[in-house]
C-alpha cells in the first residue's frame, strides 16, 4: 500500500472514529498486532489487512445512535462505499467489507479469509490483558453507565458470576475471562495469553479491595451511628 493511500484511509478512520474504548488508537493497536500476526501466516494480502483493521469500527456511531444496528455490518458497508469512491477497486473494497463484517466477537458470521481471521484475532487481543480491562471500564462506565460491581441486599459485593446484574465484574466473567479461546491464528492466541495474568490479577485485586472497604468501613459506620 502506498503511503498516500494509507494516509487517506487513516484520515477517514479519524473522521469516523468514536471516542472512548473504540477510538482511533484502538484501531491502530489492532493494526499493529495484526501486522505481527501476519508475519507468521502465509499469503496474506497486507493491503486488505491494513484497510480492514483501520476501518473495522467505523460503524460504531451508527450503532450508538441506534442499538439495533450492528456496527460490524454498518461499518462494512460504510468502508466499502468509501473505498469504492476513492478508486480502490471493487474486489479490494469487497474483501475489506467481508473482513469487517465478520470481526465481531459477540455475534455474526465467522471470518473466512486469512485477512478476516487476523483482524478478528487482533481485535480480540485488544480486549485481553490490561488494555482489555481499561477499555471495558471505559465502555461500561461512559457508554453503558453501569457500575463496577453490584450488591446483595445485605451489602455483599457480588463477584459478577451467573445471574448478576450488568457491571464491570459481570462483564469480566461473561467476556474478558473467556476471551482467550476461539482464536484463528496461533500467534494471536500467544499474544493474548501473554496478557492474561494482568487481567486476572486486576479483577481479583479490585474485588478484594471493594469487599474489604465495604466490610471494615461499613462496620465502623454502623458502630458510629447513634440509635
Could you explain how this protein is built, in words?
- By secondary structure, the protein is mainly α.
- It has two domains: 115 residues, Hypothetical protein af1432, CATH 1.10.3210; 101 residues, Up-down Bundle (Methane Monooxygenase Hydroxylase, Chain G, domain 1), CATH 1.20.58.
- The protein is 64% helix and 0% strand.
- It is built from ten helices and no strands.
- Helix 7 packs parallel to helix 10.
- The structure class reads mainly alpha
Number of helices: 10
According to DSSP, the number of beta strands is 0
Succession of helices and strands: HHHHHHHHHH
Q: Per CATH, which architecture of the largest domain?
A: Orthogonal Bundle
| Average pLDDT over all residues | 93
What's the oligomerization state? single chain
* Share of β-strand residues: under 5%
Label the overall shape.
elongated
Features:
227 residues; mainly alpha; Hypothetical protein af1432; Methane Monooxygenase Hydroxylase, Chain G, domain 1; 2 domains; elongated
Amino acid at each position: 500500500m502506498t503511503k498516500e493511500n494509507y494516509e487517506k484511509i487513516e484520515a477517514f478512520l479519524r473522521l469516523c472514529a468514536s471516542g472512548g474504548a473504540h477510538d482511533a488508537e484502538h484501531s491502530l493497536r489492532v493494526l499493529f498486532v495484526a501486522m505481527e500476526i501476519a508475519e507468521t501466516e502465509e499469503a496474506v494480502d497486507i493491503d486488505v489487512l491494513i484497510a480492514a483493521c483501520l476501518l473495522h469500527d467505523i460503524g460504531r456511531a451508527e450503532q450508538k445512535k441506534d442499538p439495533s444496528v450492528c456496527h460490524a455490518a454498518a461499518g462494512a458497508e460504510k468502508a466499502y462505499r468509501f473505498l469504492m469512491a476513492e478508486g480502490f477497486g471493487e474486489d479490494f473494497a469487497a474483501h475489506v467489507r467481508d473482513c469487517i463484517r465478520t470481526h465481531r466477537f459477540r455475534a455474526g458470521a465467522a471470518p473466512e479469509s486469512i485477512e478476516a481471521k487476523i483482524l478478528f484475532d487482533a481485535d480480540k487481543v485488544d480486549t485481553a490483558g490490561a488494555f482489555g480491562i481499561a477499555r471495558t471500564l471505559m465502555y461500561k462506565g461512559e457508554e453503558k453507565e453501569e457500575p463496577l460491581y453490584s450488591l446483595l441486599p445485605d451489602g455483599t459485593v457480588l463477584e459478577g458470576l451467573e445471574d448478576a446484574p450488568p457491571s464491570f465484574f459481570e462483564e469480566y466473567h461473561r467476556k474478558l475471562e473467556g476471551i482467550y479461546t476461539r482464536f484463528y491464528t496461533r500467534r494471536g492466541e500467544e499474544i493474548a495469553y501473554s496478557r492474561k495474568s494482568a487481567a486476572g490479577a486486576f479483577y481479583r485485586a479490585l474485588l478484594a479491595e471493594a469487599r474489604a472497604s465495604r466490610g471494615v468501613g461499613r462496620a465502623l459506620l454502623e458502630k458510629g451511628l447513634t440509635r
